[in-house]
Amino acid sequence: MAKLSIKDIAQRCNTSITTVSFVLNGKADEKRISVELKEKILKTIEDTGYKQNQFARGMRTGKTNIIGLIIEDISNAFFSAVARIIEEDAYKRGYKIIYCSTDDNTEKTKELIKLFVERNLDGYIITPPKGVEDEIQSLIDRKIPVVLFDRYFPGLETDYVVVDNFNTSKKAVQHLFDSGFEHIALVTTSSDQNQMLERLNGYEKTILENGKEPKILKIPFTCSPEQSVKEIVTYLKENKEVDAIFFSTNYLAFKGLEAINQLKLTIPDDFAVVAFDDQDFFRIYNPSITAVAQPVRDISLKLIDIILQKMNSEEKLVEKVVLSTNLIVRDSSVKRCIK
Amino acid sequence: MAKLSIKDIAQRCNTSITTVSFVLNGKADEKRISVELKEKILKTIEDTGYKQNQFARGMRTGKTNIIGLIIEDISNAFFSAVARIIEEDAYKRGYKIIYCSTDDNTEKTKELIKLFVERNLDGYIITPPKGVEDEIQSLIDRKIPVVLFDRYFPGLETDYVVVDNFNTSKKAVQHLFDSGFEHIALVTTSSDQNQMLERLNGYEKTILENGKEPKILKIPFTCSPEQSVKEIVTYLKENKEVDAIFFSTNYLAFKGLEAINQLKLTIPDDFAVVAFDDQDFFRIYNPSITAVAQPVRDISLKLIDIILQKMNSEEKLVEKVVLSTNLIVRDSSVKRCIK
DNA sequence: TAGGGATACTAAAATGATTTAGCAATATTA
DNA sequence: TAATATTGCTAAATCATTTTAGTATCCCTA
Question: What tens digit of pLDDT does each residue of B279-319 get?
Fold first, then answer.
């Protein structure tokens, strides 16, 4: 069974390629194709199982129906959860997803964007590392739909979906104060991406509002897992007064728990702990870990909504979405009643 | 700046489209293009930043340089780790990955395969749910490269990469006996996929070899998280003699830990625990959880190797790879010395 | 010096769709 | 009844590439 082309369908129906094409593209009415002929063509397509050749189609229309998902790390629970929902929803609407991880590496990301653009993807969902402003701007200039998430570039007029990092931090840190902890440290990355800065600012503001001194440990993204744990261990040894820690990412919270284990200290007696990004792990851990839950589902659906809307209309309105988070208080941030 | 085509390059070099195409496809020598002309063309391409149009190319060659990754669930730590490595390696070699999750749903998977085939992907890496034998066979018949992983169909002559589930189970269960536990239960899915059956068989064999009775709890994949936990709780209440549990998947181990927490029981005093699939979580948990580590990196690289080799050669040899696993003994499966 | 072979290149077909411009037949209006 | 509008359809250009089947030129040899 050789592959069927539109020509074969036309021949079987004693009509022209043009007419079949019109029917295929839902332009039968607009182009005044008679109902009988339309039905006949549709039936033939159904019977033969004919499928349009996507290359030929893409060649004319320049459309692929593929969205590029360029995220920091597909193996991170937060990003893979988002990827999962985006993928699912995109498929339902007839789009496919090509994905890749940036490792938050600027050069890698630039290359990936170039690679994807060569492939004529229809739209991009990106968690940009720093330094790719020009590439993003160039996409926008070329009228290629883009939406950023998790972070954005304040100087760039782009669509994005983020959470309210500043107030989330405030809420988390204030909760620790309210629970009776006094010397609250922040463990964060040394990244100067805006979401990280906002988490940092929220922390500092709350610390100062409570008349305390900020205590911050920054760990580079490139730091190896072992080294990260070591740094936290060292920091905690050298700052004995610290009685609570706010981790600005889920993976740093992991490292922190390892560090506390290594020190043979306990939560929340020695340290209270709050993490950014909730996940099953934190609920099951002993003690359960207080965390800030990002609205993964809302973020994902909003991303798809925006990108599809941009892909299917000429309108140039820019949508900036800031979602709020949910502090889930668990055992790790509440002082135990010593009986 | 309008988009450049091969025609523009040809004009700038005062040569033909054909010649440029030969140079582009590395056939310059074969087709006896003079070195000077070749250099000139290459330089022009470099200078102008010309890129081949992938549609037109795909239309002629039928090649997309895209591999379809069809896995059970991208948000599962094991699969996302594999996806991460595959993606990374594929990019390095000039291939892109389109992915999707099957949810282990037969109908969904069939649709996905159909969808991908319409897009003319060059190859497929699949964790098949049951019931898609015909679709896989049809890919093979059409000479489309496929490699399965995590599981396979014994009746089908396909390439695959799996771990030695039977002996892994044996090793895990025997370890529990060796550590002094006597009534070892298995918590597994009710799936009859071959990897699950082998894990089950390995368990039963070892139990019988040690002169004991198998105790098995099966939980359907479709069971909700809450319900799963409830089932385990009930089972443990009704089988008081059980002193150790082997979980056949990582997510079941999660449920099991939750169940044990709910029962306010402790590991390993009340139950020893061993899980299938290692992850950070198990190392950090209190107590740390003994787990069987699949060689994620080896699995991923082998998958890419096989699929690329099949994509780039006519040879029909079928590669069946069975990798061994690594039992990582941690606190959850070793009796404490009561001092 | 005719014929063969190597060298360096190219014209044109083919791939499978979309879309513009337009044609023929019929219906409607002035 | 002639002009115009509507209906229903199609020929052919176009998209950017690969690849087949050449051609023209030069060199060598018998």
Answer: 999 999 999 999 999 999 999 999 999 999 999 887 778 99
Paired tokens of B216: 């098995």
What is the CATH code of the structural domain delimited by A63-163+296-323? Answer: 3.40.50.2300
Residue A48 CB lies within 7 Å of the nucleic strand C = no
Burial of B331 (0-12, 13-18, 19+ CB in 10 A): middle
**Cα(A171)–Cα(A61) distance, integer angstroms:** 49
Residue B153 in tokens:
């169909």
CATH code assigned to B62-163+296-324: 3.40.50.2300
B78-125 tens-digit pLDDT: 999 999 999 999 989 989 999 999 999 999 999 999 989 988 999 999
Q: State the CATH class of domain A6-52.
A: mainly alpha
Q: How many CB pairs under 8 A join A and B?
A: 102
Q: Which nucleotides of D are covered by protein (CB under 7 A)?
A: 7-21
**CA B114/CA A329 separation, integer angstroms:** 45
Q: Note the CATH number of domain A165-294+327-333.
A: 3.40.50.2300
Nucleotide with smallest C1' distance to residue B57 CA: D17
Residue with tokens 């699912």: A88
Calpha distance A326→A296 (Å, rounded): 11
Cα distances from A99 to residues A2, A75, A130, B28, B90, in angstroms, run 33, 12, 19, 34, 12
Query: What DSSP designation does B293 have?
Result: E
Nucleotide of closest approach to B33 (CA, C1'):
C8
Whole-number Cα distances in Å, B312 to B74, B116, B123, B203, B307: 27, 19, 10, 40, 9
User: In angstroms, how far is CA B339 from the centroid of its own chain?
Assistant: 45
Bridge-based pairing state of the strands B326-328 and B290-293: antiparallel
- Three-state secondary structure call for residue B194: helix
